[in-house]
Amino acid sequence: MTALLPAILPVSLIICIGYLAGKTLKLDYQTLSHLAIYILVPALIASSLYRNTLSLQSAAGLIAGYLLTTLTLAVIVLLISRGLKLSPPVKMSLLATTLFGNVGNLGLPMVSFTLGAAGLERAIIYLISAAILMAGVGPALLNTSGLRAGLALTLKLPLFWAMLAGLLLQVSGLQLPFRLDEGIAMLGNAAIPIALVTLGMQLAQNPLQIGQYELMAASLRLLLAPLIALGIGTSLRLAPLDLQVLVLQSAMPTAVNTLIWVNEFGGEPARVARSIIGSTLLSLVTLPILLGLIPSIGP
């Protein structure tokens, strides 16, 4: 357990600071969340892709592993919903909380502290894939707006354009003048701590209620998803580090932004909020166990 503390304590400390800020200060966590989503995270993605040395084979393997894991989870959730005869709003809520993991706010710092810079490069590829899926397919999953509306929404997000700019600069080999890349990198470096503070504040502003539904939703996200990712990644014969990142990112709790999507497009916001809180708190138990197993995955 002592070996895991360097990975767990820095993340936990920042989340706790955010929690205390949410309890004692009159701060608007939505403002911080928008700052992270629309400015800091896009800067982190653009800077990371610009400097990324990840091979095309590794990137393709991670993307394939993520998509196959997500598809498998979606099928399982739909089968469970049919078996339990869940209403459409509850089914959509369970689908959202299972598919959309907190691979940005929590996943990036966890991978960074655990697997270093090389792991972070791979975690960002996973994050970009998840962001595109959430923005492009999420509205269609939660409502009848269709893929065209989802695509239009994706094109409005800075994440997409940051990804495109980073890829174009990386592929073209162009160098930004006047050390502008360092300025973008400095901005991106603020994304992880701000995101963790925001997560802590969000935890402080929501009551804790965990019932059978919340336990089921958390189990799908925290236990089943990494097991599926491990099986799929092994079948794809991913390199050890690629497989470790795929499994670790798949084990993250439900994304905080899931509540925004459900509010906008359909589902039960109160149920989703409880699932986010429940999975986040339970991940404090499951993630340390997984971190202890990560070194044995892949070699």
UniProtKB/TrEMBL annotation:
An annotated GO BP = transmembrane transport
Q: Where, per UniProt, does this protein localize?
A: Cell membrane
What is the protein's major site of localization? Answer: membrane
Membrane protein topology class: Multi-pass membrane protein
**Any Gene Ontology CC annotation:** plasma membrane
Family annotation (InterPro entries): Mem_transp_PIN-like, Na+/solute_symporter_sf
Q: Transmembrane region positions?
A: 6-25, 32-50, 56-80, 92-111, 123-142, 149-171, 183-203, 215-239, 275-297
Query: Gene3D superfamilies annotated for this entry?
Result: 1.20.1530.20
Sorted UniProt keywords: Cell membrane, Membrane, Transmembrane, Transmembrane helix, Transport
Q: Which family does it belong to?
A: Belongs to the auxin efflux carrier (TC 2.A.69) family.
Q: What is this protein called?
A: Auxin efflux carrier, putative
